[in-house]
Amino acid sequence: SFMQGSKLEIPLWLAKGLHDSKRRIISVEPPKIYKEAWRTVFSADANVVDLHKMGPYYYGFGSQLLNFDNPENPEIAQTILQTFISRFRRIMDSSQNAYNEDTSALVARLDELERALFRAGQKGLNDFQCWEKGQASQITASSLVQNYGKRKFTDVDG
Q1: With DSSP H G I counted as helix, E B as strand and the rest as coil, what are the percentages for the chain, rounded to 5?
Q2: Where's the GINS subunit domain (predicted)?
């Protein structure tokens, strides 16, 4: 049995299940990477942090933490957003120059969301280069663009 005030590490899903703002069964303390000392590091230069080592789901986990009534939530949310913004340009730039430089060191330091963005950037560049060389028969509009076009025509018809 646990005494009141005991600290223990539990999975996020269990913490969410036990958290009840009315009954106060548990209070949740954020992992160190979301605390003030690390927020200071992120605000100084977010690009130097090895997010994969610190937590491969930094953005996803951090946004889930905001479900708990922590007084530091506004600062945590701001840091998550600013970290994403400040790292995004470098990730996209590197994904577009992937053929000219070794990006393995950069990718190793990325959160899973950032890795997905990097791969999407590489795929876009690769698809474009194939089309440019005549290796792709055509460029197809994304479904988003196609649906937008259809909606515009039906608006005109009506």
Answers
A1: 65, 0, 35
A2: 35-131
